[in-house]
Amino acid sequence: MGTGGTGGQAGGTGAAPLRIGIAGLGTVGAGLVKLLRGNAAIVGARAGRPVVVTSVAARDRTRDRGIDLDGVTWHDDALALAHDPDVDVVVELIGGAEGIARRLVTEALRAGRPVVTANKALIAVHGAELAALAEQAGVPLMFEAAVAGGIPAIKTVREGLAADRLNRVGGILNGTCNYIMTAMRESGRAFADVLAEAQALGYAEADPSTDVDGIDAAHKLAILAGLAFGRPVAFSSVHVEGIRGIDALDLAFAQTLGYRIKLLGLARRREDGIEARVHPCLVPEKMPIAQVDGVFNAVLVEGAFVGRLMLEGRGAGEGPTATAVAADLIDIARGNAVPVWGRSTDGLTQVEALPRTAFHEEYYLRLQVHDRPGVIADVTAVLRDHGVSLRSMLQHGRAADDSGGADEPSVPLVLVTHRTQESAMMAALARIAALPAVIGEPAMIRIEAG
Amino acid sequence: MGTGGTGGQAGGTGAAPLRIGIAGLGTVGAGLVKLLRGNAAIVGARAGRPVVVTSVAARDRTRDRGIDLDGVTWHDDALALAHDPDVDVVVELIGGAEGIARRLVTEALRAGRPVVTANKALIAVHGAELAALAEQAGVPLMFEAAVAGGIPAIKTVREGLAADRLNRVGGILNGTCNYIMTAMRESGRAFADVLAEAQALGYAEADPSTDVDGIDAAHKLAILAGLAFGRPVAFSSVHVEGIRGIDALDLAFAQTLGYRIKLLGLARRREDGIEARVHPCLVPEKMPIAQVDGVFNAVLVEGAFVGRLMLEGRGAGEGPTATAVAADLIDIARGNAVPVWGRSTDGLTQVEALPRTAFHEEYYLRLQVHDRPGVIADVTAVLRDHGVSLRSMLQHGRAADDSGGADEPSVPLVLVTHRTQESAMMAALARIAALPAVIGEPAMIRIEAG
Questions:
Q1: Is residue B385 part of a domain?
Q2: Which SUPFAM superfamilies does the record match to this protein (chains A, B) (predicted)?
Q3: Subunit contact A230:B46, Cβ cutoff 8 A
Q4: Are residues B366 and B344 in the same domain?
Q5: Does position A5 have pLDDT exceeding 50, yes or no?
Q6: Nearest-CA neighbor of A211 among A332, A315, A282, A362?
Q7: Looking at the predicted structure, is the pLDDT value of residue B332 above 60?
Q8: Of A225, A306, A314, residue with least CA distance to A270
Q9: Which residues pair with B296 in a beta bridge?
Q10: Cα separation, B320 vs B332, whole angstroms
């Protein structure tokens, strides 16, 4: 019959342990050791056998990580884990799309060793190649922790919804950006100010670019899109914008218009291809995702049969991420595995996402304009020329302490368009920016109406 | 090494099909046939081999179900599926904890045949016994569709969070009740009125008891609790209250106090045992679950490492439920399986949930009282005598068209208590109900503060 076994039902404490080698003992690595030890009875029962850490590799032997590593083999070279005879599964927690992380995962798979990783960059950039390697070696490559931390987003998309034709996937995939924009909205403070605070609190890195420029969210989106649509999406083709350009003014205007601003990753199946993009969005405040604030993440999935699902939880941190890694280890201990992209890599080619010019959205525009007659007529004439139709307009009166040009006062002008092709919007915006009455670069934020 | 295979990675259209026998061709059964055919390419690729319906069993051969059953073997007796040589997996969609559904699942497992079911009553009531049977036979028994329809709640709790120590699980588990209470709140109409409308729209059954009396939600909660805590919870020990007693007045008062009323299933791990209960709750309107309206379901899980997760989606209907059944079939096709309660049944005993008297909650009380001096003093004296401390009180002025006793006017009096033992609350309420100034039965609704 060949319909499979019972997933280690017969297993127990008498069964041979699954021996883990961990590369990278940062927050997540140390958290994983704590979880596997603190919850050893639960993990052992669920896995059908003990799951034990036998080897680790990290740079600094002296650092106090709050874990006892007595009896655990220490490697200075992470690559040694790929061949350590006491290791059944390699857990890669070093990070980065290239370098040692990539070499370790490649070498472990080549050595026929299952790999669990939390490395979103690696899977997003090299997932196609690594999937083929895993399949050749006949071993699982798992990465639940790479997307949305404690939310089992990968399992949901790749297994829970495996039977459905998924049309959309995405969500709030970066907790740092969500924290910053929530704080900006609540306090009215500027981006740089809130970023500095987030850095002080440990919610943002010293070099925040990966987060605030949208790269981290784009890695996660590329992975989710690949899983949802059953083939890897070329990471370089994902359109990415971060949140540095969001002004406190935009958050306030959005609220006036009944929206919140969220950095969303969105992938969509269209007749002519796949859209995959990360950028700030105006989201109607009644949508559940608009209410997901602070460091929380939310994953949205929409399928032809299942309708719309939302999963909300902690997207990062020691505990949630360690839980995700350990869940993968339990699956491996049970002998359960799923191909990297949900199906055999045989004949599976990477797909390029559609270019930005093909997007078709509603747009929020904010211009700073000289407060003189005819400005609105000029701006709306450009939009008309490019076939962009307006849905609403908001002009705030001039404040007393207004600071515009040296001698001429200026005001913000907010326009909301109907759905239009982004190529038309781009052409119109270039002309609007060149109007004599328009000061600086116009701000453009897409609207995600649901 | 024994760390498992590659989950059917090598599979493809050339591999032997997984042959399905479906018992019960109602909405879900017909939906499953449509899904497996409409998404045959997706399902085949994900499963590593074709998944085909070879046999069905249903009562009425003549009914038009919108599906073509040519070439499919028809059994009048569902039990025949347990031994049909052309069936690899039995899908039980008949329903009910006893009778033919139970006999079919039992017989199929005894015959060494994997079973997928959407039958929450069966798993909630007989899950312990069926888990042992499945383990003896060495075949999977899967039931993702039994809880929260299209939301992969079972996979999330049993696999995605397998490594964590879960402390709470529950949520909005019955879409019919949530629809009725949403409509009551939005329209101010009475329960009976909205129920009749829901029945006309097909959102409620002709006999709505299983839904509105909380039984359906209790079945799902018992299953979730069993998975979260790693051992089956005796269904008969789950405390169940439905929504028949909810008055439009309560929905309005709740809103005034900053709450919504939801029928929640809640299970909690305590030092002295497990709480498992289904009843209406006042939920602070800022909590995400308070915003889940209409027929939508939401599942909440809380773990020591992962923190809090919420999953929201369609809890019923042809498409979502069929998606869940098909996901189980794909797991079986790949050879992936998990023990029924997440661990071996060896030494696993069923646990009784704590009795109602052990609950420890905040309470909302609504009394109809004669509008005379001293009533509040009498009521609060009783609460004080039982050690119940008050947090707030709400008394609405008497309306002009007030209808109280024959000659004496009456008004509603709303009290909100601090957290207290339910045994004390029950004793106090019995005495309050007996006060001469109190008319009818007091309404008591627990508050779920998060």
A1: yes
A2: ACT-like, Glyceraldehyde-3-phosphate dehydrogenase-like, C-terminal domain, NAD(P)-binding Rossmann-fold domains
A3: yes
A4: no
A5: no
A6: A315
A7: yes
A8: A225
A9: B314
A10: 19
| Alpha-carbon distances of A411 from A9, A89, B216, rounded to whole Å | 69, 61, 58
Residue showing tokens 């008394």: B395
Kindly report, residue by residue over A33-75, the tens digit of the pLDDT. 999 999 999 999 999 999 999 999 998 888 888 999 999 999 9
Catalytic site residue A34? no
The widest CA-to-CA distance across chain B, in whole angstroms, is 84
User: Which one of A1, A140, A308 has the shortest CB-CB distance to B4?
Assistant: A140
Residue B24 labeled ligand binder: yes
Distance (Å, rounded) from C-alpha A266 to C-alpha A262? 12
Query: A237-255: per-residue pLDDT in tens?
Result: 999 999 999 999 999 999 9
B286 and B251 assigned to the same domain: yes
A130/chain B closest Cα distance in angstroms: 14
In a domain, B254, yes or no: yes
* Sequence letter at residue B54: T
Separation in Å, CA of A136 to nearest CA in chain B: 9
What does DSSP say about strands A115-117 and A89-92: parallel, antiparallel, or unpaired?
A: parallel
Domain assignment present for residue B156? The answer is: no
Residue with tokens 């009783």: B382
CB nearest to B311's CB, from A18, A311, A324? A311
Residue-level pLDDT at B347: 85
Distance CA B281, CA B287 (A): 13
Q: Flag if A140 and B7 touch (Cβ within 8 Å).
A: yes
Contact of B126 with B236, CB cutoff 8 Å: no
Q: Is residue B279 located within the same domain as residue B347?
A: no
Q: Is A426 exposed, middle or buried (0-12, 13-18, 19+ CB in 10 A)?
A: middle
Q: What pLDDT is attached to residue B164?
A: 97
Best CA proximity match to B117, nearest among B131, B105, B99: B105
User: Which CATH number do you get for residue A43?
Assistant: 3.40.50.720
Q: Across chain B, what does the average pLDDT equal?
A: 93
Q: In this structure, are B346 and B412 located in the same domain?
A: no
Which residues in chain B are contacts of A12 at CB distance < 8 A?
344, 346
Phi, then psi, of B51 in degrees rounded to 5: -115, 115
Helix (H) or strand (E) holding B31: helix B27-38
Q: How far apart are CA A220 and CA A149, in angstroms?
A: 11
What does the pLDDT look like over B144-199, one tens digit per residue? 999 999 999 999 999 999 999 999 999 999 999 999 999 999 999 999 999 999 99
CB contact under 8 A, B8 and A288: no
Distance of CA A93 to the CA centre of its chain: 17
| C-alpha to C-alpha distance for A36 and A34, rounded to whole angstroms | 6
Out of B249, B284, B313, pick the residue that ends a domain. B313
Statement to judge: residues B319 and B305 lie in one domain: no
If pLDDT is split at 50, 70 and 90, which confidence band does A154 have? Answer: very high
Is B120 known to sit in a ligand binding site?
yes
ipTM for the assembly: 0.93
Q: What is the CATH number of the domain that holds A362?
A: 3.30.70.260
Question: How close is the nearest chain A Cα to the Cα of B150, in Å?
Answer: 5
Contacts of A66 (CB under 8 A, 6+ apart): A30, A34
Neighbouring C-beta atoms of residue A280, cutoff 10 Å: 27
Using a CB-CB distance cutoff of 8 angstroms, which residues of chain B are in contact with residue A335? 2-5, 335
pLDDT band of residue A266 (cuts 50, 70, 90) is very high
Q: What total number of domains does chain A contain?
A: 3
Same domain for A299 and A230? yes
B3 and B93 housed in the same domain: yes
Q: Is the pLDDT of residue B252 over 90?
A: yes
User: Mean of the per-residue pLDDT values for chain A?
Assistant: 93
Q: Residue B383: which domain range?
A: 357-447
CA gap B330, B206 in Å, rounded: 34
Report if residue B155 sits inside a domain.
no
Q: Read off the CATH number of the domain in which B256 is found.
A: 3.30.360.10
Quick check: A322 and A28 in contact, CB under 8 A?
yes
Is B164 within 8 Å of A305 when comparing Cβ atoms?
no
